[in-house]
Amino acid sequence: MHRGGMPRFSIFSIRGTRMAVQTRRLAAERLESRRLLATVSVEQSFDESARELRLPLRVENAQDVRAAEIRIEYDPNVVRAEEWKVEPGEFWNGRVSLSVNIDQDAGTITAFLFTAEPVAATAGDLIRIDFQEEACVSQPGAAPITVSHVHFDERAAALSVTAPMDRQPVLQPFSQLADSSSRRIDHSGDLPMGPLRPDRVDALMASWLPSERDPDETVRNFGTISDGN
């Protein structure tokens, strides 16, 4: 919440967070050790002086997460997103790599976070994004921001938290990311990659060598990632 009057954006509409489809594989579980489906929620705050909207995505009831893919859509005529203003949240405990692809013309953000070992935390902010108000905006209005999908890797349980909308088949299989001819995530189709599996995360991490990675792909490391050896 901000103070000192209403911002020029009278409403920031966050869609795709209340209605969600949650699925995982069925398996026999003891009541005391059952694994609950993770849930994702969105909070927002507006900085009046900086004309900036902060949007953190929070996860609850997550277990053994090693990777997450997040896609967000926004109105590029009202707000702008920059790669350096997309940061991982405290859920990852500072030990995570972040790949971000932003298409300002289309108004889309695709962020992929991954780590070598499962995260011990079960709740916390996955990612934080700061949106800047466009200078050309002079009239109050809505700035719709949609969380299109959040895909997790939870080892045995494949989980998707997805806003109800039409989907098409993935153009590029995730397994092809480890091929020598492909060293980056192809976001050209703007389609979800998930669900993610640990072996595919390992293949992706192995393929992103500093000397061979495509210079156009933005990958930032936070902390030290260990393979356990």
How far apart are the first and last residues' alpha carbons, in Å?
Answer: 46 Å
Q: Which architecture of the domain at 9-26 and 33-169 per CATH? A: Sandwich
At the fold tier of CATH, the topology name of the domain at 9-26 and 33-169 is: Immunoglobulin-like
Rg for CA atoms:
18 Å
What is the CATH top level name of the domain at 9-26 and 33-169? Mainly Beta
Supply the number of helical segments.
1
Q: Which percent bin holds the helix content?
A: under 10%
Q: What is the succession of H and E elements?
A: EEEEEEEEEEEEEEHE
Stretches with pLDDT under 50, minimum 5 residues? 1-22, 154-194, 224-229
How many strand segments? 15
| Overall morphology | globular
Largest sheet entry? 8 strands, mixed
GO molecular function: carbohydrate binding
Organism: Stieleria neptunia
Region (Disordered): 175-196
Domain Cohesin: 53-132
